[in-house]
Specification:
The longest helix has about 50 residues, at about 1-50. Helix 3 packs antiparallel against helix 6. The chain folds into 2 domains: about 1-50; about 60-215, Endonuclease I-creI, CATH 3.10.28. It has helices at about 1-50, 55, 80-95, 100, 160-170, 185-215, and strands at about 65-75, 110, 115-125, 135-145, 150-160, 175-180. By secondary structure, the protein is an alpha+beta fold. The chain starts with a helix and ends with a helix. The strands form 2 sheets. It has a 3-stranded antiparallel sheet with strand order 1-5-4. It has 6 helices and 6 strands; from the N terminus they run H-H-E-H-H-E-E-E-E-H-E-H.
Length: about 220
């Protein structure tokens, strides 16, 4: 009887150890699978980063003759991605050109009795340029990648400053002096108007792109 009981105890102990071992293996396998999944995700993200063109991360330096800007887009439609990336680059270009082209160049000065030009608040020199007058924008590079069912597009744009200057010269755009007493108020008002105009322009372009995409579908 005792021998039979001992066998039962031993059998129960072995079964318990087996169950514990199976449970332990299950946990270990789960942890291992999660670790492998995380490592694969990291590898995918690292590969995506490595595929980003160097000229996008290190935009060419602007010069007196050229200004650069980049843009990117990620959608499931190639044409939409191309258009959106270019649009984003154009916004970046417009931002870079704020003082050069679409904004207002200001310098306060007056001529002293000795004939030297000195900084002052008497006059503000401004240059007005309509954003629609911007010319000489060229697509320098495009790179397209396909990942997880989406097209990732990188675009590099360049503005030829000399072409812009020639266009302005042909239109007779020149520097205009206005009273400094109203300058700050004028600048603030103009900045608000230009910001609103850019927002409306962006909405219009986005609506057009969506409409084109809907027609393609």
């Amino acid at each position: 009887m005792k021998l039979h009981t001992s066998k039962n105890v031993i059998a129960a102990t072995m079964i318990s150890l087996l169950l514990v071992g199976c449970a332990s293996n299950g946990v270990d396998d789960y942890v291992k699978a999660q670790k492998q999944q995380h490592e694969r995700a990291v590898e995918v993200e690292q590969q995506r980063f490595d595929d980003i063109p160097d000229w996008f991360l290190n935009v060419p330096a602007n010069t007196t003759d050229s200004i650069y800007a980049v843009g990117t887009a990620n959608t499931n439609n190639l044409q939409y991605s191309l258009n959106q990336a270019k649009l984003n680059a154009e916004f970046g270009l417009a931002k870079a050109l704020n003082q050069e082209i679409t904004g207002r160049e200001r310098q306060y000065m007056h001529q002293g009795t000795d004939g030297n030009v000195q900084m002052d608040g008497d006059n503000v020199i401004t240059k007005f340029v309509d954003p629609t007058d911007i010319v000489g924008v060229h697509t320098v590079k495009n790179k397209v990648q396909y990942s997880d069912g989406k097209y990732i597009v990188y675009t590099l744009l360049n503005l030829d400053v000399n072409q812009q200057r020639q266009m302005l010269k042909s239109k007779g755009v020149d520097l205009t002096a206005i009273s400094a007493s109203h300058a700050y108020q004028d600048v603030k008002k103009e900045a608000a108007q230009r910001k609103e105009a850019k927002i409306e322009e962006a909405k219009s372009k986005q609506a057009t792109l969506r409409q084109n995409l809907a027609m393609q579908e």
